[in-house]
Structures are given as C-alpha cells and as structure tokens.
Specification:
The chain is α/β, with parallel strands linked by helices. The protein has helices at 5-8, 23-36, 42-55, 111-125, 128-136, 140-147; strands spanning 14-18, 60-62, 65-68, 80-90, 100-107. The protein has a single domain (16-148), classed as Mannitol-specific EII, Chain A, CATH 3.40.930.10. The chain has a 5-stranded mixed sheet with strand order 1-4-5-3-2. Residues 7-150 form the PTS EIIA type-2 domain.
C-alpha cells in the first residue's frame, strides 16, 4: 500500500525558516531529518548534490520550489520526505525559477513510488498561493495545517 505524500511529511520532517547560504547547504539541511531517522544514508545527500552538479538545476520544478531527490539505490533505506522553508531565498542557478524559498526532499524506494510522489507533488508545485502560505508559516503545526489544507 502506498503512502500519500502529505503522510510522509511528519512533524519531525519539517524545518521552518532555515538560514543557508548555498543550494548545496539547502539540500544537505533539508535531508537532515531523513538522515536522523535512518530513512537515508549520507551517500544519498552526496548523490543529490552530485546530480545537480552533473545535470543542472533540474530539481527546481517550478518557480521558487525544489524537489531534491536522487536514485533509490544511492542511499534510500525507506520511503520518506522532508521539507524546509528558507529564511532567505537561495539561487539554484535555474534560468527561470530562482530564487528558491521552499525545498522538499524525497527518498523514494523505487521508480513507482517516485513517480507517484511526483504526481502528487504537481499539485503543490502549481499552487503558488499555497506555497506562499507554507513559506509564511511560523510553526510546524501551522505548516502542516496548510499542507493538508486544514486551514
């Protein structure tokens, strides 16, 4: 049975208004909750950063929004997701969608779960007013209510 995207983002996987200086720091920081609970290995963080170095900022899926991810075999232990809002936007060197102010991190166990998460993610990626409310959230509880449309 697959898990809904919003169910993967537990309270301990939400980081509010983090200060980072670079896109590399943003990826490493958003991945920390997944590393802390054993959903990924450090190799997965390195793989996400390496993929952007090699292929460009393809993870900037819409204006201001990143979905950091890599191949499952790069260090995913179990399906998980985290999210981080940034105190100050960061450039990922994307020609149209910079600067980024909200970063999601997906650890998918296989291609099917990866594609399912991406399909669900499109709803968030295409809703800038919702993103702005998420970015403005001051607490994890407020963020979760907006994400689950309970506000």
């Amino acid at each position: 049975m697959s898990t809904a995207l919003t169910d993967l983002i537990t309270d301990d996987h939400v980081i509010i208004h983090k200060h980072v200086a670079t896109w590399q720091q943003a990826i490493a920081a958003v991945a920390q909750p997944l590393l802390a609970d054993g959903a990924i290995t450090t190799a997965y963080i390195d793989s996400m950063i390496d993929a952007v170095d090699r292929f460009g900022p393809y993870i900037v899926l819409s204006p201001h929004l990143v979905l950091a991810h890599a191949r499952p075999e790069a260090g995913v232990v179990r399906q998980a997701m985290s999210v981080m809002t940034l105190a100050d936007p960061v450039n990922f060197n994307h020609p149209e969608n910079d600067p980024v102010d909200i970063v999601f991190c997906l650890a998918a166990v296989d291609d099917d779960s990866h594609l399912k998460a991406l399909r669900e993610f499109v709803a968030i990626a295409g809703d800038r007013p919702k993103q702005e409310r998420l970015i403005a959230a001051k607490t994890v509880d407020e963020f979760q209510r907006i994400l689950r449309q309970e506000d």
